[in-house]
């Protein structure tokens, strides 16, 4: 005991212990600062996403935010503990080697799972699409019902639910981000008075705008789109809310047909998108 006491009280040993304590304190402080900065960054990203025009499930957003907070905290704390253990003289080589072998084995067995999870995080944080959006992934088109960390679920308009692993999502078309365009082509006989038909269409589309809130701008009659040997095609367009173009197109078709029938004008074909 006397030898230990004399050894510890040596100036060199005291200085070494002092610097070890200083380094441990610095490691701890730096770890806390890193956690604080990371959490601030995530909170900023979540706030920016809340202001995005895309629609998100708030409960899911909070869950993902909490998950990322915990993941960062655990990772930094683990690194901090390992650095502190290294300062007190513990040999971490065998421990790291064992962890590396286990991690390598798990990595080979879960490559697709890791890919799905990483892609899921990018989908959420980059605001590629949100719950309630109408999207198309490859040949599958429908409304997003759920964005998970591993899979995305979309429901088609006929009722089928498609479950797509996030890692398989290569390209996404989002139909809900910006306004859509309803296009109606009215095919009438070529001998018809164009000015009369155009005026009827202008009056009709103005009336249609009063019937629905989906049209965001006054519809336009662009004029004659195609001239055939026996008929001609007049195009009408209407800017409307995202994914409502099909409902607006059907409403335009109905009202245009009614007005042309009242004016005793033959309509050869009505088509739109």
From TrEMBL:
Keyword Transmembrane helix carried by entry: yes
Top-level taxonomic group: Bacteria
Gene3D superfamilies found in the cross-reference section: 1.10.287.1260, 2.30.30.60, 3.30.70.100
GO cellular component: plasma membrane
GO MF annotation: an example: mechanosensitive monoatomic ion channel activity
Membrane topology summary: Multi-pass membrane protein
Domain Mechanosensitive ion channel MscS, chain residue ranges per copy: 113-176
Main localization, broad class: membrane
Presence of keyword Cell membrane: yes
Localization per Swiss-Prot or TrEMBL: Cell membrane
Alphabetically ordered keywords of this record: Cell membrane, Membrane, Transmembrane, Transmembrane helix
Chain ranges of the Mechanosensitive ion channel transmembrane helices 2/3 domain: 70-111
Matches recorded under InterPro entries: LSM_dom_sf, MS_channel_1st, MS_channel_C, MscS_beta-dom_sf, MscS_channel_2nd, MscS_channel_C_sf, MscS_channel_TM-2, YbiO_bact
Domain Mechanosensitive ion channel MscS C-terminal: 183-266
Membrane-crossing residue ranges in chain numbering: 17-39, 67-89, 95-114
Assigned protein family: Belongs to the MscS (TC 1.A.23) family.
Job of this protein: May play a role in resistance to osmotic downshock.
Name by which UniProt lists this protein: Mechanosensitive ion channel protein MscS
Organism, as annotated: Paenibacillus ferrarius
């Amino acid at each position: 005991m006397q030898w230990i006491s004399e050894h510890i009280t040596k100036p060199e040993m005291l200085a070494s212990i002092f610097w070890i304590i200083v380094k441990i304190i610095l490691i701890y402080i730096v770890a806390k600062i890193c956690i604080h900065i990371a959490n601030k960054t995530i909170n900023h990203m979540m706030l920016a996403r809340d202001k995005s025009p895309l629609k998100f499930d708030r409960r899911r957003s909070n869950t993902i935010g909490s998950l990322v907070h915990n993941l960062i905290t655990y990772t930094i704390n683990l690194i901090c503990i390992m650095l502190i253990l290294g300062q007190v003289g513990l040999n971490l080589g065998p421990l790291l080697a064992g962890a590396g072998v286990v991690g390598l084995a798990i990595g080979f067995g879960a490559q697709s799972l890791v890919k799905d999870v990483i892609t899921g995080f990018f989908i959420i944080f980059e605001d590629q699409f949100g719950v309630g959006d109408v999207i198309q992934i490859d040949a599958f088109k429908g409304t997003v019902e759920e964005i998970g960390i591993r899979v995305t679920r979309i429901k088609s308009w006929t009722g089928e639910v498609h479950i797509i692993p996030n890692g398989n999502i290569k390209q996404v078309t989002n139909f809900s981000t910006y306004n859509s365009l309803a296009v109606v082509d009215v095919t009438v006989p070529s001998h018809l008075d164009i000015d009369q038909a155009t005026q009827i269409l202008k009056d009709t589309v103005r009336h249609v705008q009063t019937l629905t809130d989906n049209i965001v701008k006054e519809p336009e009659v662009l004029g004659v789109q195609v001239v055939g040997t026996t008929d001609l095609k007049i195009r009408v367009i209407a800017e409307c809310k995202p994914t409502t173009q099909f409902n607006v197109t059907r409403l335009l078709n109905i009202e245009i047909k009614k007005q042309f029938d009242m004016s005793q004008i033959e309509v050869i074909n009505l088509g739109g998108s």
